[in-house]
Amino acid sequence: MNASEWHTLLTATDEVREIFTDLPDLERCDLFFCHIDERDVSVTLGFDTRHVPAPVLEEPGEPGRAKANAFEFFLTFTSVTDLRISGWGGNTRRSVHIDRAPSSEGIAVSVESPTEHLSFRAREAVVPRARAYLAASPPSASAPSGAVTHTDG
Predict the structure, then answer these.
(1) Chain segment 84-108, per-residue pLDDT in tens
(2) Are the C-beta atoms of residues 67 and 56 closer than 8 Å to each other?
(3) Which distant-in-sequence residues (6+ apart) come within 8 Å of 28 by Cβ?
(4) 63 to each of 21, 59, 81, how far by Cα in Å?
(5) Whole-structure pTM value
(6) Which of 10, 83, 7 is CA-nearest to residue 41?
């Protein structure tokens, strides 16, 4: 699956399609958040990108005045199984792959770097939150990213 076709695996894509005409490639987004929730058996990943949807780039009637230059969105995966995680928490660039799970219904997710690994399967995925904002500067490769939070039941 193409890295920008991840939206085809979402349960509801209307919100995402209303915002984006050209969806961001997850490989070009900064994965800045990972929350594992044992109560809901879910994993939420947060992404930040400078690939801002065209309708939110400029203030209406004020050409050249940026309304937003950054966009963040979250993907929540539910009914998670086969969760594997190791070496998480460094300041590293991660490769994100979301695809149909082989030989079963659902979604297979993997996030990898030379020193980290996160993988799981999920029944469905939704976008619970997305927002455009005016950022002071672009994301830096040296900035901390990918903090993991964990919730016990």
Answers:
(1) 999 877 666 788 888 888 767 789 9
(2) yes
(3) 49, 51
(4) 20, 7, 48
(5) 0.76
(6) 83
Nearest Cα neighbor of 30 from 52, 13, 47 is 47
Distances (CA, A) of 47 to 32, 83, 137: 6, 20, 16
- Name the residue with tokens 């939704």: 126
Q: DSSP letter at 76?
A: E
Would you give the end-to-end CA distance of the chain in angstroms?
35
Q: Which tokens in the block code for residue 91?
A: 């300041």
Reading the block at residue 2, the tokens are 């193409």
Residue 95 to residue 111: CA distance in whole angstroms: 6
- Give the span between the Cα atoms of 48 and 131, in whole angstroms: 10
Instruction: Give bridge partners of residue 84 from the DSSP assignment.
Output: 119
Rounded to 5 degrees, what are φ and ψ at 7?
A: -65, -20
**Other Cβ atoms closer than 10 A to 23:** 19
> Would you state the structure tokens that stand for residue 100, as one six-digit string?
């149909």
Pairing outcome for strands 95-100 and 107-112: antiparallel
Q: Is residue 140 scored above 60 in pLDDT? A: no
Tokens encoding 4: 């920008």
